[in-house]
Amino acid sequence: MVNEAPSSYSHQADRPVTAAERERVRSDFQRDGYVVFRNVVDADLIKEMNGHVEWLQRRHPEVRPEQLGHTYLRDDPFWVHVVSDQRLLQVAETFIGHDIALFASHYISKPPFSGQPVLWHQDAAFWPLEPMDVVTLWLAVDHSTPENGCVRVVPGSHTWDVAEMTENTQVESVLGKEIAVDVDETQALDMVLAPGDVEVHHPNIVHGSTANTSPHRRCGLTIRYIPTTTKIIAAEQPYPSAFHLQGDPGVNVYQPRPRYNPGRHYEFSAATRWT
User: Fold this and answer.
1) Among 55, 163, 168, 197, which is disulfide-ready with 193 (CB 3.0 to 4.6 Å)?
2) Helix axes of 19-32 and 86-96: crossing angle, nearest 10 degrees
3) How many alpha carbons fall within 13 Å on the CB side of residue 187?
4) pLDDT digits (tens, 9 = 90+) for 217-269
5) Which residues pair with 135 in a beta bridge?
6) Does the reported pTM lie above 0.85?
7) Beta-strand relationship, 8-10 and 34-38
8) Nearest to 221, CA basis, from 117, 151, 140, 153
9) Taking a C-beta distance cutoff of 8 angstroms, is the pair 151, 138 a contact?
């Protein structure tokens, strides 16, 4: 049985979000630990993101496409251009306020027939943040379905304590670990998304995804936004993917804005704004 997400909203970037709309979204998020926004970004940006994933794979052929993570971001104007998109920031602002920084971002691109699963986990178990005030936007680049390994969440599990993680060497997976508690998979919901849709989730929610054994790629971009009052507690400062995006810069040290260099960087339509 496929259990699809009931808490979804149409995104309208051409008008401000009303206070009543924000309150309704926050209420659903506080209850369930996730919400879905439809049609957040347009087909042109999704097309450029597809090209960007292919470009990254050519540049890093030794890296599995599920592992195109934040360490590659700091010198990538297009990537920073995407996470700075005002439509995405407008969504993030609903949950964490106006003063926003990027903590991390990661393409998880599951190739056809061989895409690895993401075992059940809570993001907060991994992240060096204090306090754990952060929100994840999962932006669909491809159609994301149960057949190709869409994200699955356990509604309400964001109210659980953060559990320990345990190594799992029996299954080749994106994280190599899984949550050290039993998960009732019959309670999980499938985040069925179209390109440009965004699923938003709490750092404590239990979530994961199955392997992609279908003939269709499943690619999404995770974007981890923090309010600028949240401190990134990491030995490397500035953190590779720490960028100030909006409002007061707050408590962190940030990477400088990358400058577009033809021939070195991915070519995109707004590149002249990053020179």
Assistant:
1) 197
2) 70
3) 12
4) 999 999 999 999 999 999 999 999 999 999 999 999 999 999 999 999 999 99
5) 225
6) yes
7) parallel
8) 140
9) yes
> The dihedral of CA 119, 90, 160, 252: what is its sign?
positive
Token pair, residue 39, equals 């049609």
Q: Using the 8-state DSSP alphabet, how is residue 207 labeled?
A: E
Contact 116, 172 (CB under 8 A): yes
Please, are residues 141 and 53 in contact by the beta-carbon 8 Å criterion? yes
Give pLDDT tens digits for 49-75. 999 999 999 999 999 999 999 999 999
Residues 208, 255: Cα–Cα separation, whole Å: 30
Cα–Cα nearest to 173, from 237, 112, 115: 115
Residue 207 half-sphere exposure, CB side, CA atoms within 13 Å?
25
Domains assigned to the chain: 18-254 (2.60.120.620)
Q: Is 188 within 8 Å of 152 (Cβ atoms)? A: yes
d(CA 248, CA 244): 9
Residue 26: what pLDDT?
96
pLDDT in the model for residue 247: 98
